[in-house]
Amino acid sequence: AGMKFFLQYVGCIVAFFSAGFLIISTWTDCWMVNADDSLEVSTKCRGLWWECVTNVFDGIQTCDEYDSIYAEHSVKLVLTRAMMITADILSGLGFLFLVLGLDCVKFLPDEPLIKLRICLASGVMLLLAGLPGITGSVWYAVDVYVERSSLLFHNVFLGIQYKFGWSCWLGMAGSFGCFLSGSLLTCCMYLFRETSSGRLHSAYPLRKGYSSATTVVTNAHFPSLQTATSKMYAVDTRV
């Protein structure tokens, strides 16, 4: 039981931070940052939704949103948005399900097998959340790196060259955290399924036996009435 509680709490903590990392990564503006800021007076960051420029001297930040979501965008941007939003939804649902499945939460306290299945379902959701999260963040980072390398290889200088920033790293960290928490809940918590099932089946005969004993005791308070004829036959039989 102690190991089960430990795995639940570790999985819950990792799932909380992983979901938070994915959400922060999706809605922050530093997926791409200018690669060489030593000669620049400002730091330029690009996110999935807007581009921000921060002045190095006074720290003033100005952000420009991209065009409407219905406007024409690059395939990289559109697919990364879709995958990260999907990861956010799945990781958030996985964390909420895990909270309901914790033994310390008074939700279905008399149904340990159902609570265990809720934990397993949350683990599956977290594993599924890690797939689009890691795919979107790694693909975006690799695409930025390949684009920058190709420009350097052909000696093309466009004034500003980008590398992947901390938002992209945060998306990778959140995705790996989802894989970790999902693995703990699906693989390790599965080992406790037989224990919970055994407790449930062992408790059922006890309740059934207790019910039968109660019936016997109850019937003892209502003895069957014997008629005079039956008493006479009983006396003749003894004689």
Task: Describe the overall structure.
- The protein is α+β, with helices and mostly antiparallel strands.
- The chain has a domain of 152 residues: Butyryl-CoA Dehydrogenase, subunit A, domain 3 (Up-down Bundle), CATH 1.20.140.150.
- It has 6 helices and 5 strands, in the order αββββααβααα.
- Strands 4-3-2-1-5 form a 5-stranded antiparallel beta sheet.
- Strand 3 and strand 4 form a beta hairpin.
- Helix 3 packs antiparallel against helix 4 and helix 3 packs antiparallel against helix 5.
- The longest helix is centred in the middle third of the chain and has 42 residues.
- The relative contact order is 0.16.
- The C terminus is likely disordered.
Topology readout:
Layout: H1 2-26, E1 32-34, E2 42-46, E3 50-55, E4 61-65, H2 75-101, H3 112-153, E5 162-164, H4 166-188, H5 193-220, H6 228-238
Antiparallel strand pairs: 1-2, 1-5, 2-3, 3-4
Helix pairs in contact: 1-2, 1-4, 2-3, 3-4, 3-5
Order of helices and strands: HEEEEHHEHHH
For the biggest β-sheet, the strand order reads: 4-3-2-1-5
Oligomer: single chain
Number of helices: 6
Family: Belongs to the claudin family.
Membrane topology: Multi-pass membrane protein
GO molecular function, one term: structural molecule activity
Catalytic activity: Cs(+)(in) = Cs(+)(out); Ca(2+)(in) = Ca(2+)(out); Na(+)(in) = Na(+)(out); Mg(2+)(in) = Mg(2+)(out)
